[in-house]
What we know:
receptor; single chain
Amino acid sequence: MGRDNLTWVSExxxxxxxxxxxxxxxxxxxxxxxxxLTLLGNGLILVLVWLDPRLQLPMYFFxxxxxxxxxxxxxxxxxxxLAHFLLEKKTISSARCGTQHFFSLALGGTEFLLLAAMAYxxxxxxxxxxxxxxxxxxxxxxxxxGVSWLVGLANAAVETAVTVRLPTCGRHVLNHxxxxxxxxxxxxxxxxxxxxxxxxxxxxxxxxxxxxxxxxSYARIVAAILRIRSSGGRRxxxxxxxxxxxxxxxxxxxxxxxxxxxxxxxxxEQDKVVVLFCTVVTPMLNPLIYSLxxxxxxAALTRVLTRSSESKR
Length: 313
């Protein structure tokens, strides 16, 4: 097809989850409540990490970064989705679509990398506890977090650049809830070999490599825990990792299902479910998992509330 015949659209139509008005009203309430819980839960984690001196530890530094990512990640797509539940015309301009695509990729990639950094933190805490404070110093923690953010942003910039340049020859209906990579590429009317290569490379850099690092860290952790003779010691050591392991299983598991499976076996509805799980469910559950299973977070909340009530007297 000659370049003169290629066209780019100025806006896209998002089909979303349902065309039924009653169903959309119910979904608005459901996802609106989930969004508020995400903001409140992750905001509370940030406040506690900031205010409580006893949480000035590497684990909670990374947890604070994760909360920032979750707030921004869910905010990159959920408000627009909520608006579309109430609107008859579910359109998004190509510029806003590209912006949403970039931030979704950047924040999603950063979260995967942060989870790998947190796995390393747990590895040092369990396998080398006597040197934990020396190894996980402020410089290393800041470096790991900084690399996670920079790689996430750089990966998103490359993938967005090769995606938004694709002409669609007038096709502008996205069978999705957001401007997601695979949905945008499926509209292209030109060869997408480069895009497929970039998607594969991106999946390796921000998903497969961090996932392997997490697996390696936990293999070493499990081996170290099994060498502990007392059952109480084993439970205590494993208890420091369960929250992180739960979050890792949810985040990596759903992403691997989306980006590492053959596209011939995937469906648009499955892609929607996975994206909603990653952008709505996981950010909402993360603070609940870390707070419900973490005695230090509970104790920090009690101390902050006690200080607040005493200051009002």
